[in-house]
Amino acid sequence: MKSSWEEIIASDSDYIDLIWYGSIMNITSHEGEISQTNTVIVSWFQRVYNLKMVPDSINDSTLEAFRKKYWEKYGIYSFEQVKELQKEKVCVLNCMYTGKPENIVNGVLIRITRKDFETYQKREAIYDLYETQYSTINAKCGEILQESQRGYILSAQEEYIINDGHAFLPYHNFSRNGAYEFWDYFWEMFDETTYQVDKK
């Protein structure tokens, strides 16, 4: 079931459990008060580099705010660099619902409390939230620890998706390093289930 951040904020929920599959797997990217992380897998979704990193429809002041807060860690130290990237087909990660149970994404489950809803709404404004089932796994070997739990996963709104994009490599390496912190098995699964990393 698809939800929006506005619906989540308007609800009476004290928290939501979000499954992160990209840069927020790296703990240095976390914001606000969050729970202990759990490693999980989700079926029916595919992780792919098809979300344009610098969308044409976002205004310059918002892009510059993002650069200062989130993108300097990728070596983007000037707004001129942002405008150059906007001309390219570099992407960040997205999760697409495929309807195929063989598609699997591993990620990190983080509980976000109500006081931080608006922080993440601003940060992830171009995503919708999909309620889905996940299983908690042992990141060292892949053993299923607990099945059929419910949480949300982010999926980009269609207007921001491009079909012939490829990874912005500093972002990819940052996300991959986050996966690596949870043992080799988890990192290898990230590599095996991530698509459109390279230029075609």
SSE diagram, text form:
Blueprint: E1 2-3, H1 5-10, E2 15-20, E3 38-43, E4 45-52, H2 60-71, H3 79-86, E5 90-97, E6 104-113, H4 117-123, E7 127-137, E8 144-156, E9 166-167, H5 169-180, H6 184-192, E10 194-195
Parallel strand pairs: 2-8, 4-10, 5-9
Antiparallel strand pairs: 1-7, 2-6, 3-6, 3-7, 4-5, 7-8
Helix pairs in contact: 5-6
Question: What can you tell me about this protein's structure?
Answer:
This protein is of the alpha/beta class. The protein has one domain (2-192): Hypothetical upf0131 protein ytfp, CATH 3.10.490. It has helices at 5-10, 60-71, 79-86, 117-123, 169-180, 184-192, and strands at 2-3, 15-20, 38-43, 45-52, 90-97, 104-113, 127-137, 144-156, 166-167, 194-195. A 5-stranded mixed β-barrel has the order 2-6-3-7-8. A hairpin with a 6-residue loop joins strand 7 and strand 8. The radius of gyration is 16 Å and the shape is globular. The mean pLDDT is 93.
